[in-house]
Amino acid sequence: xxxxxxxxxxxxxxxxxxxxxxxxxxxxxxxxxxxxxxxxxxxxxxxxxxxxxxxxxxxxxxxxxxxxxxxxxxxxxxxxxxxxxxxxxxxxxxxxx
Length: 97
Fold this sequence. Notes:
alpha+beta
């Protein structure tokens, strides 16, 4: 079954572009593991410090494998100080994808 995640990140004031750059690097690395169908990073039009991320993977196992790609954990660590508040999102199961 396909697996996805949807999250909203609230960057610290003025750090939205830096967070997006870090997420893009993470995206590039994670895609090398295979199984990534969609990894969208979107900037909210009315606030440059609100970023939405949508991911679709062929399986939850593929997503877990992608998190183990060398360099990904370092980028996660780099992104945490750029985010204010809780880091989180929702896990999704896709039935029609």
